[in-house]
Amino acid sequence: MNTPHTEPQNPADRPARLAVGVVGAGRVGPALAASLQLAGHRPVAVSGVSDASVRRAAALLPDVPIVSPADVLARSELVLLTVPDDALPGLVEGLAETGAVRPGQLIVHTSGRYGVGVLEPALRAGGLPLALHPAMTFTGTPVDVQRLAGCSFGVTAPEELRLAAEALVIEMGGEPEWIEESARPLYHAALALGANHLVTLVAEAMELLGRAGVGAPDRMLGPLLGAALDNALRSGDAALTGPVARGDAGTVAAHVAELRKHAPGAVAGYLAMARATADRALAHGLLKPELAEDLLGVLAGGTAPAGGGGRTGGEGRTDGPDGTDGPDGTDGPDGDAR
Questions:
Q1: 3-state DSSP helix/strand/coil percent for the chain, to nearest 5?
Q2: The pLDDT of residue 49
Q3: Residue 269 and residue 204: Cα distance in Å, rounded?
Q4: What pLDDT, in 10s, does the model give residues 310-332?
Q5: Domain definitions of the chain by residue range
Q6: Fewer beta carbons under 10 A from the terminal one: N or C of the chain?
């Protein structure tokens, strides 16, 4: 392997080290099996019931037979259990009770919520339990295999299997991140808060822009959200911008009033996120305490303070509705007119 000219160029020519099976041909399992195939392993079986599952398996794992879950385990040395979180405990218990799990068989699940405790029935049957959760959103298409390059995986395993777990992640192109068993629920909650809720926020923002007459909401939001995400990852709370972080109670009250008129279903989410933003801005010294009182009053009751309606800066300019100083003293991603 240290001499590139001797390494086979075709992945199919590499020695197949493990026979890989997939139980649950959702969006995740076929992509992981396909990436393991690129590393020299051999997918041998997949289970899937719905038409969508069959199509995904055919697209990502062509010529791999679709069989029952028990048959997947019978043919495999490495089994990927890629089913919804709530279905995982029952699946593991059922496979163990029916004798499908063999001693020495690697049993891997991809749930973010669970560690290896959920695989205890398989462990009692002699299986080797691993929890490998890719911190990635999947589409069920071949592009997912490419996205695994550099993707972080939340890894939990018995200490004696830690190196094996990390090696599998690296072979899939990922970066292993060790998560203690007890921290798995918090780890998963953090990812859901950041990724799943982001989709909801972006979709809602595009819908509101459309109602405001914007012809291409995605084109308008793309650069703004890209800059905001980059700043947040680089600077954390220091990247907070906008009327809440500035303490513009009048602007926030106007937002709430408009949302109540045009999108009442969005009000609760706006207020919840604004309160969380205000708390973080206060804690990090971005929101001035003297401006916080009126703002928090608006967030509690949704009405503007007396005489409220925006704030004029002491430099003889009026802040734009979304802009403020960025974390390094430059304009933030929303842009002030100065």
A1: 50, 10, 35
A2: 86
A3: 10
A4: 443 333 333 333 443 433 333 33
A5: 9-179, 188-301
A6: N
